[in-house]
């Protein structure tokens, strides 16, 4: 039986061929994105505070703020996919919050019509603690999806070494790295109050999302 579908959907297509050596300078090429994302994340924190009180009072996440927050996470995933969160493409990420249909990495989240007023008080700090412990292992000290440390960073480095040595990204390694990033972004969406669906303790590997159970 397939696992239940999660409202946050992360998908990716491994580009081929990939440059053997471009990954060595992607830290420099992606620098403009790092600067923009720093400002976007500061704004995202501020809008999340506003959304907290809106949910507490109305049970709804204001749609413009929701679209902005999901856009910041989407942008972060694209940059991470290009750079040191995955190295899955050599195509330069677009500067936009919107989805780009022909880009090989996508992230989206279904808009919740209603959110729990009670959960908003505890889910982002108390209920998410077990996942924060896991994310500390996955990301290490660098808490950013576009430049990951920890296990994700180590596996991405292994992918870069494999590219340099063989010109190929090992498929099993790709599936694992994408699955770990999927876990990170599910937790990010929950902690940012964008969904009430608790992130599953499950590693869904591969570029496609698992289909819902019949």
Automatic annotation (TrEMBL):
Spans traversing the lipid bilayer: 31-57, 121-140, 146-166
Species of the source: Streptomyces virens
Keywords, alphabetical: Membrane, Transmembrane, Transmembrane helix
Record protein name field: DUF4389 domain-containing protein
Pfam families cross-referenced by the UniProt entry: DUF4389
Lineage: superkingdom: Bacteria
Matching InterPro entries: DUF4389
């Amino acid at each position: 039986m397939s696992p239940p579908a999660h409202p946050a959907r992360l998908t990716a297509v491994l580009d081929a061929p990939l440059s053997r050596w471009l990954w060595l300078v992607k830290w420099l090429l992606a620098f403009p994105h790092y600067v923009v994302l720093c400002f976007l994340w500061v704004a995202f924190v501020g809008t999340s505070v506003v959304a907290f009180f809106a949910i507490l009072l109305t049970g709804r996440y204001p749609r413009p703020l929701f679209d902005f927050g999901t856009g910041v996470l989407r942008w972060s995933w694209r940059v991470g996919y290009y750079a040191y969160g995955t190295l899955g493409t050599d195509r330069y990420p677009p500067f936009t919050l919107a989805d780009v249909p022909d880009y090989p990495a996508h992230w989206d989240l279904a808009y919740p019509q209603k959110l729990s007023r009670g959960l908003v008080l505890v889910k982002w700090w108390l209920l998410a603690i077990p996942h924060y412990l896991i994310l500390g292992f996955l990301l290490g000290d660098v808490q950013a999806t576009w430049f990951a440390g920890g296990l994700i960073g180590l596996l991405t480095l292994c992918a870069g070494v494999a590219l340099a040595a063989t010109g190929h990204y090992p498929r099993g390694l790709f599936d694992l790295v994408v699955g770990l990033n999927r876990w990170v972004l599910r937790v990010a969406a929950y902690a940012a109050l964008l969904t009430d669906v608790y992130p599953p303790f499950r590693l869904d590997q591969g570029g496609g999302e698992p289909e819902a159970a019949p």
